[in-house]
Design a protein that fits this description.
two-stranded antiparallel ribbon, 5 helices, elongated, alpha+beta
């Protein structure tokens, strides 16, 4: 007669899943910080408020998905009296001849595209460490 009590195995699998999720959260957090740091280098500095407005938000969805958001927001009032997000304007329309060389539009999009593989590897490395 062969008897298998799977409860210990299932308990260990739950622990492994929890550990992998923690590693994924750590990896996504590190990747978001890397993206933010690279983005800061390209963010226009004419008045300095954009870099200061940067936020990183980490969200775990349904216990199985991790989402990081890197954002900039600087609300200004236009000459006509309307509020607008200066960060969005600078990102989408901004000056390609900025006051600080090397900065300019698409300051978040450009590093995301340039470093996608590196950011993916940052996340994968954290998960691999947990699996060892």
């Amino acid at each position: 007669m062969l008897e298998l009590n799977a409860s210990q195995l299932l308990k260990q699998l739950d622990l492994t899943q929890n550990n992998i999720m923690r590693a994924a959260i750590q990896g996504v957090s590190k990747a978001a910080n890397e993206l933010a740091n690279e983005s800061d280098k390209l963010t226009p500095r004419d008045e300095g408020e954009l870099v200061a407005s940067r936020k990183i938000r980490l969200e775990v969805r349904h216990g199985i998905s991790v989402l990081a958001t890197v954002s900039y927001s600087a609300i200004r009032r236009s000459k006509s009296g309307w509020n607008f997000d200066y960060a969005v304007f600078q990102h989408e329309v901004g000056n390609w001849d900025p006051t600080t060389p090397g900065t300019g539009p698409k300051y978040l999009e450009r590093p995301l595209k340039a470093y996608t593989r590196r950011l993916q590897n940052t996340i994968a490395d954290e998960i691999k460490k947990e699996l060892r």
